[in-house]
Amino acid sequence: MLANIDSLMHGFTVALTGYHIMLMVGGVLLGILVGVLPGLGAPNGVTLLLPLTFSMDPVSAIILLTSLYWGALFGGSTTSILFNIPGEPSSVATTFDGYPMARQGRATEALTYAFLSAGFGALVGIIVITLLSSAVASFALRFGPPEYFAVYALAFASFVAFGGGAPVKTIIALGLGFGFGMVGTDTVSGSMRLTFELDQLIRGISFLVVVIGLFGLGELLLTIEEGPEFKGASGRIDPREMFRAAARMPRYWFAMLRGSAVGVWMGITPGGPTAASFMSYGIARRTSRNRDNFGKGEPEGVIAPETADHSAGTAAMLPMLSLGIPGSATAAVMLGGLMIWGLNPGPMLFLEQRDFVWGMIASMYLGNVIGVVLVLATVPLFAAMLSVSFSIIGPIIVTVCMVGAYTVAGAPFDLWLALAFGAVGYLMKKLDYPLAPLILAMVIGDKAEDAFRQSMLSSSGSLGILWSNWLAGTLTTLAILFLCWPFVALLLGRRSAAEVAITPAAGHEENRA
Amino acid sequence: MLTRFHLELGFAGLVLLIGATGLVGSSGLDFGWGADGPRAGYFPFRVAVILVAMATLVAVQAIINRAALRRVVVAEPEGLRRVLGFGLPIIGLVLVAQWLGLYVAMALYLLVVIRWQGRRPWHTALGVALGVTVVTFLIFEIWFQVPLLKGPLEIMLGLG
């Protein structure tokens, strides 16, 4: 533990340069912008910025991208509260009580609760990372290919068991991700796979283009369908009201701690911020003393999802850094970034790239403080920006997405791909197919396959190696159990076939109501 | 009116098609299990099989529950019109970008969409179209030196 504090201090010396603080401020501001605009969310905000970081030093690049992530998480809550339009999927739960509060003229109060509890949740997440990441990494250093494959399999399987979507649809999303990820050159044998002799497919399908399509254009189409009109509460912030609300925050300590715990858990296991915020809201609504007031403007209904959202967002960085497994769609994009910058995500980072790892962790503390301050200061500005009609902002976002899709590889064909995935993303959202597993499978699918094939090479083709020691054996068995659980539940009559194949269980629906 | 039932079937059909394409694509590869583990086509083939099977499952369940799913309207005609009105011009944008370059395409797209779909006056549409394009050019070509797709116009102007 003490060694970690020491490393963290070293990290601060890396992160605390004028240039890096400038990047944090810039990243957070861009992030708030991305978070406020519907159709631009954290995953594709990071994706759009990624090609511009290829020439940067990795520490600076990750500071810029993570700051953008924090900004996006904060920005998403602003529109949820003021306009009842979630700027991010993970801030949907914030609309349930945030918007009613704003309608009652308590917008300042709701925003203050949201940002401070979000900052608190993020802090808890970062402390967990500071304390645990190097321990997890040094544990993971003993991993060989079989253990890695088992961890990957467990990550995929836990989406199926706990992801919140219908299990069959989660498997389809994973399968599509694996399939699209396989297009191109096979890394083990060097042969071409699924390219159908099309030149454009030889270099594979970039997951960045897929993110821009699914999360960017798809989300825009959904927003436009609902006929977005930014008719909301005023974004004016009254400083005195803000301080009074801040002084009332300690009263909700239990909701904040519980939300953080839910968030940290969902961030480390790949549930992600969206699932975490819904879950935290659901628990708070069922157990709170003020449960009758939920949905009508209850502060706890803002605090619970916000703390969980942000602690999940930050905690998702823990498995990304120490195991090379992203805990959310945004973390998956960043993981792809690490590989592009020439870093090898996983436990070796902690030995070989100390400056990078601890510089990034230290910057997370500072980035979130900057985030809270900046978002409070700029709410009126961004609220005013949304009053510009969507018929102007929408098309501009489309061009930003298209430019982003082109910069990934400089290929005109990628524009068509982004377009196609935009349509697919729209349909998937309409039908409750989860999107995050698709991205996760695309980013780490080939790593999982490599790990599997390397294991088989060393065992000369025997599957027994996956159970050759207690660690790999336990993980593999758990993965199989998780994968089979929904179908076992079906056989036991605990779930109906329609729940497994078409829509999530009734419990999840209730959370959304 | 589009119901959830039709959309479920439609998307399951699309997944089925992707799965079938994967089957065709991987059947040309060696998809067996060699002496040292799976061959190149092993995983593509199995993923394709899983996609086909799961898509069939969704379709079957949708048909069994069709009565309930038919009652769920996924898109009102008005919303659908908005989606198409927003989506079709994007196809135009991509099409034009292929031969005139991204800058010209985005300027035309913004101009057309804001003028006719947004029903904004000419000066607003023109201002946004030119402004966004010029700012994009400055950010990408000058500041970050990331070249974007260019067409005959840029070459004529000596910018390509």
Characterize this entry briefly:
The complex is a heterodimer of chains A (513) and B (160). Chain A has 513 residues and is mainly α. In chain A, 73% of the residues lie in helices and 1% in strands.
Tell me about the biggest sheet of chain B?
2 strands, antiparallel
**What is the subunit organization of this protein?**
heterodimer
Give the neighbour order of strands across the main sheet of chain A: 1-2
Q: Which segments of chain B are poorly predicted (pLDDT under 50) over 5 or more consecutive residues? A: none
| Content of β-strand of chain A | under 5%
Treating each run of at least 4 consecutive H or I residues as one helix, how many helices of chain B? 7
Helices and strands of chain A, in N-to-C order? Answer: HHHHHHHHEEHHHHHHHHHHHHHHH
Please give the alpha-carbon distance between the first and last residues of chain A. 43 Å
Q: Low-confidence runs of chain A (pLDDT<50, min 5 residues)?
A: 505-513
Protein name (chain A): Tripartite tricarboxylate transporter permease
Keywords (chain A): Membrane, Transmembrane, Transmembrane helix
InterPro entries (chain A): DUF112_TM
Domain DUF112 (chain A): 21-440
Describe the overall structure.
- Chain B: This is Tripartite tricarboxylate transporter TctB family protein.
- The complex is a heterodimer of chains A (513) and B (160).
- Chain A contains 23 helices and 2 strands.
- Chain A is an all-alpha fold and 513 residues long.
- The two termini of chain A are 43 Å apart.
- Chain A has one domain (2-230, 237-512).
- In chain A, strand 1 (184-185) and strand 2 (192-193) form a beta hairpin.
- Chain B has 160 residues and is mostly helical.
- Chain B is built from 7 helices and 4 strands.
- Chain B has helices spanning 4-27, 42-64, 66-71, 77-100, 102-117, 122-143, 152-157; strands at residues 2-3, 33-34, 37-38, 73-75.
- At the A-B interface, helix 8, helix 9, helix 18, helix 19 and helix 20 of A face helix 1, strand 2, strand 3, helix 2 and helix 4 of B.
